[in-house]
Inverse folding.
């Protein structure tokens, strides 16, 4: 069959998205074709290859076990790091016009609560994590606890893990623009077997803002839920340390989206003058008062225990000992 004409193509730093009349494809951009960061280093996202493979597995699993409307898988190539599914035309919930939002929200709420969530709760496992055996936590939890690896553990006692989408934000719910009925639930790359409380009602808030209204105390408890109990495989160490940060790096940071000032307090020690290096902290979304610990490896910035004031998204410059590694 001849290849269809490409109607649209765009890319993030690491993923290329391609639309034809009947298909949608995700392809991981090879490292050599990606731009470098401001320090000339390669950019690597959290478990990006595992997430693509997980979406392939999840779409087939959900398609076979439930009646939830999801795109049909057409092909997957581990060599090309490419997933192709049928194209689902529609608009995402966050694209609905303001005057149509009450009706769209009501129909979405009804479909998710009466159809999607009950079916997902019926899919159960005694093992934590994704179908292929890894553990990929929800993106909002990874922001709170940026480990590179999470141990796969067994359920304790009467505990049971249910299948969660883990990213049910407005951007991942497609609607029919005429009827505003849900046409499909997309983007299953973070889905897997997790404690029932992990399926957060993210669709009730604007996309890209849901992390700022998840209570940090809840995040800490959910992090502990993943790490508690007997592991099914070899446990991995926590991949962060609190870096040495100069006392004078206590900064007043402005929120990106909320316009709220944040007084950041750092748990610090004195750093030798020659060891300091300026680095840019990645965006963090948190609320309530927290102590930030920064650590730097050759490719990433790791965040330690976090508690902050206000509902804010922020970034800032810190001085840190670049000789420290994430262990």
């Amino acid at each position: 069959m001849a290849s269809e004409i490409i109607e649209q193509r765009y890319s993030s730093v690491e993923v290329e998205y391609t639309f034809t009349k009947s298909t949608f494809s995700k392809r991981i951009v090879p490292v050599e074709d990606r731009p470098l960061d401001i320090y000339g280093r390669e950019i690597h996202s959290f478990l990006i290859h595992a997430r693509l493979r997980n979406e392939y597995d999840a779409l087939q699993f959900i398609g076979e076990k439930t009646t939830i409307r999801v795109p049909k898988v057409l092909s997957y190539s581990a060599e090309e790091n490419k997933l192709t599914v049928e194209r689902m035309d529609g608009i995402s919930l966050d694209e609905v016009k303001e005057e149509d939002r009450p009706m769209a929200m009501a129909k979405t709420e009804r479909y998710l609560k009466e159809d999607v969530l009950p079916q997902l709760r019926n899919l159960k496992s005694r093992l934590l994590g994704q179908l292929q055996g890894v553990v990929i936590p929800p993106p909002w939890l990874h922001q709170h606890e940026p480990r590179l690896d999470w141990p796969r553990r067994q359920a304790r006692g009467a505990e049971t893990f249910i299948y969660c989408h883990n990213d049910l934000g407005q951007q991942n719910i497609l609607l029919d623009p005429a009827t505003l009925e849900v046409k499909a639930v997309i983007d299953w790359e973070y889905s897997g077997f997790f404690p029932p409380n992990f399926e957060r009602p993210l669709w009730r808030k604007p996309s890209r803002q849901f992390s700022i209204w998840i209570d940090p105390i809840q995040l800490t408890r959910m992090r502990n839920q993943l790490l508690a109990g007997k592991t099914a495989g070899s446990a991995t160490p926590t991949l962060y340390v609190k870096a040495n940060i100069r006392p004078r790096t206590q900064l007043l940071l402005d929120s990106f989206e909320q316009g709220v000032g944040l007084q950041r307090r750092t748990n610090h020690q004195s750093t030798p003058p020659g060891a300091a290096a300026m680095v840019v902290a990645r965006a963090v979304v948190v609320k309530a008062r927290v102590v930030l610990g920064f650590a730097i490896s050759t490719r990433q910035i790791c965040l330690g225990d976090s508690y902050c004031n206000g509902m804010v998204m922020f970034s800032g410059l810190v001085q840190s000992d670049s000789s420290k590694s994430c262990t």
